[in-house]
């Protein structure tokens, strides 16, 4: 009987132990939330945070440098590192960063407008998948734009999260660095959430590595800026530009002139009826240049070694663009031409200097 009692106790302990072990084996718990990784970050191609690398390559394959004119057909290369601590990546077929790219420009109205970029090529390095590049070409839609900006977002194909911050630059040719924020900016010139205004990309030849280059508005493929004689309504009185090399045309007091940007296909300095004009997309400034000593002593005298004043001249209206016409001297009857110019060092108004126009 005693032996039976012991066996019953042993059996009870065994069953209790089995039940306990079975109970623990069935226990499981899950976190209330999903496992998160790290958001991707856009950096320059040299791995510098808060910068992007932007290079311009001319249509002939040469690299842009400060002082160059930028034309339709030149290409923009946005180079970046899509850094992700988890190893998540974008790729050419997914094209997540490419899909976020939006390019905008400012023209003579000084307002931002989105510019269509129908062909954007996206590539990633085969051996370093974080290194990416977006390439697009300046089309006729860019002509006259004085500032070219863009925005794009750090984004990978897979991951949690897949999206990082927006990065944007207000001028690919400008000084300074881009903005970055969680909020999608309304345009490339918008401030970030702290009120900071964006600058240039920070790296690359377009901005001379953040110093700024200011090439002026984008020009047509064969675009030329010229000065032409016009009547009071803006009609051309001579189709040869006064800026043409070797021209015998002489600008004179009492005449009206217009700045014209046109596609000088045959590069002859003459605005043909068959050539396209782009003046309406530009703003202009008028100046005089040179030195009084440039005047031949046999022709006249306007002083000794007097450099042209750098102040701008007053325009005479808008023919197609902004401030694109000027009247030399006074167009008011009885008013002496020299009297409308207040340059203290000049002896004869603007006589003896060259007329200059430039886009801005």
Shape: elongated
CATH architecture of the largest domain: Sandwich
Q: Secondary-structure element sequence? A: HEEEHEEEEEEEEEEEEE
Q: Mean pLDDT, nearest integer?
A: 93
Into which percent range does the helicity of residues fall?
A: under 10%
Q: Tell how many strands the DSSP assignment holds.
A: 16
In percent, how much strand structure appears in the residues?
Answer: 25-35%
Task: Please outline what is shown here.
The protein has 360 residues and is mainly beta.
Structure description:
By secondary structure, this protein is mainly beta. It folds into two domains: 41-203, Immunoglobulin-like (Sandwich), CATH 2.60.40; 222-360, no CATH class. Helices cover 8% and strands 25% of the residues. The chain contains two helices and 16 strands. It has helices at 2-25, 96-100; strands spanning 41-44, 52-57, 75-83, 102-106, 112-114, 121-124, 131-137, 147-155, 163-169, 179-181, 202-203, 223-230, 256-263, 284-289, 325-327, 354-359. The strands form four sheets. Strands 1, 2, 3, 6, 7 and 11 form a six-stranded mixed β-sheet that branches. A five-stranded antiparallel β-sheet has the order 5-4-8-9-10. Strand 8 and strand 9 form a beta hairpin. The N and C termini lie far apart (113 Å). The model has no long low-confidence stretch (mean pLDDT 93).
């Amino acid at each position: 009987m005693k032996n039976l009692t012991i066996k019953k106790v042993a059996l009870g302990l065994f069953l209790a132990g089995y039940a306990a072990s079975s109970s623990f084996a069935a226990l499981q718990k899950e976190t209330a939330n999903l496992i998160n990784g790290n958001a991707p970050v856009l950096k320059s191609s040299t791995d510098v945070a808060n910068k992007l690398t932007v290079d311009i390559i001319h249509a002939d394959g040469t690299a842009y440098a400060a002082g160059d004119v930028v034309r339709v057909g030149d290409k923009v290369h946005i180079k970046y590192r899509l850094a992700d601590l988890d190893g998540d990546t974008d790729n050419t077929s997914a094209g997540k960063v490419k899909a976020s790219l939006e390019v905008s420009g400012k023209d003579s109205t000084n307002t931002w407008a989105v510019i269509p970029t129908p062909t954007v090529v996206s590539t990633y390095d085969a051996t370093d998948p974080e290194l990416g590049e977006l390439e697009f070409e300046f089309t006729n839609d860019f002509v006259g734009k004085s500032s070219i900006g863009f925005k794009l977002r750090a984004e990978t194909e897979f991951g949690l999260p897949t999206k990082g911050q927006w990065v944007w630059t207000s001028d690919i040719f400008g000084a300074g660095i881009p903005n970055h924020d969680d909020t999608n900016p309304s345009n490339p010139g918008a401030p970030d959430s702290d009120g900071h205004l964006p600058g240039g990309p920070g790296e690359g030849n377009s901005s001379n590595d953040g110093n700024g280059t200011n090439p002026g508005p984008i020009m047509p493929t064969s675009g030329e800026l010229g000065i032409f004689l016009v009547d009071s309504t803006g009609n051309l009185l001579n189709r040869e530009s006064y800026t043409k090399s070797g021209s015998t045309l002489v600008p004179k007091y009492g005449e009206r002139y217009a700045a014209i940007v046109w596609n000088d296909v045959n590069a002859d300095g003459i605005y043909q009826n068959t050539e396209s004009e782009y003046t309406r997309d530009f703003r202009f400034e008028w100046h005089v240049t040179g030195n009084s000593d440039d005047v031949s002593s046999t022709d006249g005298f306007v002083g000794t070694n007097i450099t042209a004043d750098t102040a701008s001249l007053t325009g005479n209206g808008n023919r197609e663009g902004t401030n694109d016409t000027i009247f030399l001297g006074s167009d008011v009857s009885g008013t002496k031409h020299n009297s409308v110019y207040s340059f203290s060092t000049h002896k004869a108004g603007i006589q003896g200097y060259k007329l200059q126009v430039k886009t801005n």
